Each structure stands twice: as structure tokens, then as C-alpha cells.
Predict the 3D structure of the following.
Amino acid sequence: MILQINSFSPTASIALASEGIVLSTEENDLPQDHAKWLHPAIQRLIEAAKIKPDQLQAVAVVAGPGSYTGLRVGMAAAKGLCFALKIPLIGVNSLYLMAEAMASLAIEKKALLCPMIDARRKEVFTAVYSAEMKEILPPAAVILDKTSFEKYLLGNRMVFSGTGAAKWKELVHSNNAEFYPQNDVTESFARISNQYFLDKRWLDLAYCEPVYLKEFFTHANK
């Protein structure tokens, strides 16, 4: 049984999952309340499932990039639970998670995946993946201009999604750029975190931190 904590976006969620299958969830769509909502919500979820905390095998957290405050809240809660229960901590990159949730569409469209998270002004957190989830452009903070992603769009259809995609839609003029609402990531989170658990791909509790990316400023076409 894995507890999932997702607080990288304005809507936070938690879930219980077993062997990659989501069993129960709870959400909070008030970003300013994530900190006070999280711990009581975890307690409610565990009680409703009629399990004890020591039955958890791991805690998985969306490690970022995303909301600075949300990431800190989620990571702190996850680390505290893992330390107290002596169980592994699993971290999943938010952009990889968003892309995996859109992978079936990308396979259908024979397109690349480009999730985007709004990072204010003309900046987004983004990455590029193949439909098979191979990393093509590593997660980065990108300041958008009309030439961003040009080299990818010349020969590929691309699926753009996420809170930052609207900024890019205003700039891009390529027929290969397609925009879709971001699919919910809860089931993808369960699949990925279960695989990470099986692979023992765990974070170091003492040294792990959220993935902020704000120290990196680049252009995607370079």
C-alpha cells in the first residue's frame, strides 16, 4: 500500500494505491489551504480505508517542479511520515507524471509530449518526451518565444498540455502543435510510484529536496 501526495498544482490530492491501482482519493482545490488540509486528509483517508499507518509500504510525493509552497508542504509531510514509519520515500517528477497521463493520446496521434506548468510571465516549466516516455528535452524552466520548440515541431506533431500551455498557444503558428486539456494524473502516479517501489528507486530522506528548476533559464530551441 502506497500513500500518494500530490501538491505541485493549485488542486492538491492524496490517494491510497496498491500494486499500481488507486483505491481511494481526496482533493483540495484551495491552494492557500494545502498545508492545513494535508495531514487531516491523510488521517481521514487511512481511517476510511480501515488500515493502520504502519501498513503503508511507502509514501510517494510529486517532487516538482510546480508551486514552490505546495512542493515544500508535500515534501515535508512525506518525509515526516517516512521517517516516523521507517518506510521508503518515492519522488516523481511532475512533468514526467503529466506526460505519462497523456501518453495514450500521443501514441494515437504519433506525437511528442510536451507538458507545461505555468511559471509566471512568459516562463513555463516544461519537458519533451516521446509517446513511449523517452526523455527528449529534460525538465527545465523555459522563457517562451516564437521559436521555442521549433526544431521539434519541424518534423513532429506535438501534444501540449498543462497550465502553461495557453501561453504557448498564443505564440506558436505551427500546424504540428496540438493542445489538449491535461488528463488527471492520479492513476499515472499510482503506476509510476508502484514501479519505482519495485525497482527500489527511493529518495534519501536526509538530503532530498523538491525540484524547483527556477535556477535554470533556457530556450527550448537551443
The two ends are 42 Å apart (CA to CA). The chain has two domains: 2-93+184-198, 95-179. The CA atoms of residues 20 and 191 lie 4 Å apart. The chain is about 30% helix and 30% strand.
